Amino acid sequence: MENTSYLYDTLVRVLSHHAHWLDLRHLKTLAWMMVGLINSYSISLGAWTPFVISRARYSQSTVRRFRRWLDNDKIEVQTLSGPLIQQALGGGLANGSLWPWIPPCCGTRTASCACP
Fold this sequence. Notes:
0% strand; mainly alpha; 5 helices
């Protein structure tokens, strides 16, 4: 779990540079979700719970926390993820060659999005 908390701290530091957080708890929950996703290699919310350090006694509690975050209408995913994706692709690739392959609807909650 030592690597988990280091990854979490790093993600919180990177994500906190973004100015559009309405609540610090939103940022922390996203960081834990990213830790779980990275470590579990799975998109299942339940698979992320072993990598989360929290006071929750049951993994169901953590899954509910993640589900509430995902269903929260006050969190504007596109507003938060757009600059982060641009920074990751711009900083990670010299010419940003992958950017045209990402559909503009990614990060939105629309039914018409053709994202995988």
